Structures are given as structure tokens and as C-alpha cells.
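Appendix C reproduces, verbatim, an entry submitted by the partner laboratory led by Prof. M.T., so that reviewers can inspect both the input and the predicted structure.
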Amino acid sequence: MFIEQDFYFWKVTHDLVLNQGCEVLHINTEHKEAWLEYSGKWKNHVIRIKYKQINWRNELKRDLQVTYQQLKQNRQIYRGGNVILHTIYVSEFPPVEEWENVVSEMNEDKKLNVHLYYFSDENKDKERKRFYEALRLDEPVLEQRISHNEMEAMIPYLKQQIVSSHRKKQQEVQSLFQFGKPQMTYILLAVNILLFMFVESQGSTTSVSTLIEFGAKYNPAIMEGEWWRIGSSMFLHIGLLHLLMNMLALYYIGIAVERIYGTWRFSVIYLLAGIFGGVASFMLNPHVAAGASGAIFGLFGALLYFGVRHRQLFFKTMGWNLIFVIALNIAFGIMVPQVDNGAHMGGLIGGFIASAGFNLPKRNDKWLQGIALTGYIVILGTMAFIGSEGLFNDGERMGQVQQTQDLNESGDYTQVVSITSEALADPGRYEAELRFNRSYAYNQLSKPEKAIEDLKKVVELSPDMGEAHYNLALLYQQKGEKNKAIEHARTAADLRPENQDFQELTEDLQ
């Protein structure tokens, strides 16, 4: 009688959901059909269990094809691993015709594995065992020796438990994404925008000197003890475009992370990620730097940590999109020299470690948190030591090159001479750049002989620097030493044939 198959359908579904940990994707109590998902060892098993009597082979094949297409159309729901489809039919009798090889005939998509099980009365025990073994689950004991009246009385209870479990899990998932309210995100947006407006009112935010004055990451100053710049540089931005891009990212990513982690965890992760990224930049990047990018990448790291703790849910929602955005930003940073990759990667790693250290809400893994926080401190201290020793970037001298170039543009030539003269006592690999900047300052201070002396040393150290040859040609022209002027003008024109000024000077001198 149909009541036996009806009861069996709900009993198997109940076991898979309540005892085996399968997640309900969709359930239709009226048509007696359920779609479930079970994850194990990086494979997603999608289970469609249907109470339906199928009589003919072609009817079975058509129904499987419809099921197969539904899975393909909604495959984005099952991201994060290989998808295996298990289709179970519960009925009194099997199809009249042979049905076992139907799957091999219709399985054209090599990316999907399709398995068919037919729980008819005569072979349901055998097919059930095959199904549970395929998923490596413990096969349950499904007692059938009860009266039809008892079966009929139990079916509503089984339905209610399955539906209640489904609703409870939906509420749990919803709570993961709605733990906190985005308060600190809006505060950070306001702080960054207001500081940008203030700095812009005092001078240009694209000016290196202005940035240094207001707390940008400047390695020479940090090496002299101004470690506070690691934190202050998180709230400065270089130009309007830089601000807009970072604030747009902070708005979208910040709201998502703050909802998941809550305000105080979000704030700590943001700050620690920014500091970690700033120290990584200090270690690897010699240039003057500023911006919230390191902290924002730390929020990416926080979402990745969420993905580690909730892998299945992560890939169903944001997973591959987030990984794509991170990979795109890393690739962009590699291709564009001006991007501070040290801050970006440091922020990403720092945000991940900080998230592990303070964990997700309602989770308490003291052992893991202790290791994460200890690791954060050790790695941060190691990067700070390496940066202070200048093992990777000779940051102090590069920072002085940038600063003196900016000072030349602003007309503070005396300061340029002072800074470069002090730096040239131990110039490292930036002697040519420092002397070039000083030569320009000397020339503007009406000291051409000293400018020539510096430029002669520059072309000796960097013979391919066309600008140095060009400036030497101009200075020799002023002195009336035409042959030397022509020689350096020709060299500059040969090095930079696309530079119209270099070509015109050569023609004029000849």
C-alpha cells in the first residue's frame, strides 16, 4: 500500500537530515520531494529523494534529465568542491524495463557525477545500503514492522521535525550574517574623509612633504623612533581618487565584516590588520606611503577566516567572488609599480591572524586564539626588526630621495641641500638619485660649479640617466663649454630619443 512507501520516504529523509547532518536545500511536503546536501572531504553530495512511481525506462530517463538540468542551472549554490548527484526514487515497484544503466547513457557532463538508486519494496534494503556506502555514512535501522495506523500517525511528526530542523538552520545562517550593526564602518568613513579634507586645506595630499608632515609612513622618521606613523598613515590618502577607491571598498567590505564579527571585533581586526600591513610596508617598501588599503585587505583576511570556519556556507555565498577580487588586486599590484604590495599582503595576512586571535562571535577556541595572537606579535616584531635594519629596502635613503624631490618642486632648495648632504655620508644604493636632487638645488641656488660636480658623479654612477646628461649640457652651455655641452646633449638624446627637449637642445648646440 502507498502508506508504506510514504512512510519510508519520510523516514529516510528524516534520518539524513536529523542524524546524518544533511542540509535541506528544498523540500516539498505536498509532492514528497526533497533536495539535500552533504559535504565530506571536499566533495559536495547533492541528494534528490522523490516518492514517485515510474513505470517505464524512458519516463525515468526524462525525469533524470530534468533533475540533471536543475542541478546544472543552480550549480552556483553548490560551489566549493566536486558535486556528486544522488537521485533516489521511493516506490512500490521498480520500472517495468531495465533501468540500471540509464545514468551512463545520459551523463554527458564530465564535471558532474550522477548516481541512481531505486528504493522499491523488493530491493530497498540493497539499494539503501549502496547509497549509504557511497556517502560513507552509517546505515540506520529503519524499522518497518509497525502497523499502517502507526505509520500514518508518525508521518506528520517526521515532517514537522524535518521542517523545524530546516528552519532552525536557516535562522542560524541568517544570524551569522546579522550579528552586528555597521556602526564603526561609518565612523571610519567619516574620519578618513574629514582628515583628507583637513590635510588638503593645509597643502596638497599628493605632496610628499605634506604627507610626511601629517603622519604618512616615512621610513627615515620611523627608524628615528616615530613608530606612530604606522598607525597614522592608515587614515591619510594620496589624492582624491585614492580616497574614493579605498572608501568605496571600506563601505562594502566593512559593512559585511562588521555584521559578521560585531563592532568591537571588527574594530580590533581593522586596527591590527592596518598595523600589520604598515609594518610589512616599512619592511618591504622604501617609498613614502599612506592609505587604508592594508586595513581593508585585513577585512578580506577576516572574510577568508570566516570561510575556513564555515567552508560550505562561504562558497555558497561570497567564496569564489571574494577569492577573485583578492587575486585581481594582487595581480594589479604586481603590474602597477606604485601599489604598496607590502601593505596589501601584510594587511591580508594580519587580518586573517587577528580574526583567528579574536575568533568569530559565540566561538571560544582559547588554544587556537592564543597561538594566533602569539604568532601575530612574533611576526610583527620580526618584520619591525628587519625593517629597522633595512635588509630589504634601504628605506631611509629612498624616503629622502622622495622628500628632496618634493622639496625641489616646492622651492625649498636649502632644505634639499641639507638633507641630501647628510644622507650622502652613507647613501647606500641611492647616491645617484640624492646627488641629482642636490645638483638641481645647487643650480637654483646659483651654485653651478657644485651642481656640475654632483652631475658628473651621477653620470659616472648611472650613465643611462638621460636627465643628468641633459642638465650637464645646459650647465656647460651656460659656462660656454660648447664641446662638453654637445657631448652630453647627444648622449641624452641617444638615451631618450622620444624626448623632444633633448633633441632640440642637441640641434641648437650643433
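The chain has 23 helices and five strands. Additional entries are available on request from the coordinating office.
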